Fold Nitrogen regulatory protein.
Amino acid sequence: MQLSEILTLDCTKSAVQCTSKKRALEMISEIVAEQTGQNSTELFECMLSREKVGSTGIGNGIAIPHARMHSSDKAVAVLLQCESPIEFDAIDNRPVDLLFALLVPDAQCKEHLKTLSCMAERLSDKQILKQLRKAQSDQELYDIMINR
């Protein structure tokens, strides 16, 4: 699966003013709801449930929140670049400023594990991270993520 199949410019937000993990998950839920017609509260609850299992803050200022959607047939990715880092209970106890969320239909979980793994690998590239953190617009953020 190509990243461009699940991440759109509409789902890419730079310099987001966000003050907490909860608010970041709410914002992601709202963006996905706009794209899929899903209920944003249900999406938020799904992501929150996943976070209770263990934080998706993978370290180095990055979080990859993810969840299953019950009544959708397409996966949606959201990329947020926070204006200021937020506490996220990350494994390295550092705040997070880049969030790459992935919401997938129940039926497509296995194939999206690969996408999640691919994203984690991409986000471990120091050059990509540097560019993502310097991006000045949604378009620039999107281009960096897609064109690698």
The domain at 3-146 is CATH 3.40.930.10 (Mannitol-specific EII; Chain A). Strands lie at 7-16, 57-59, 62-63, 66-69, 76-86, 96-105.
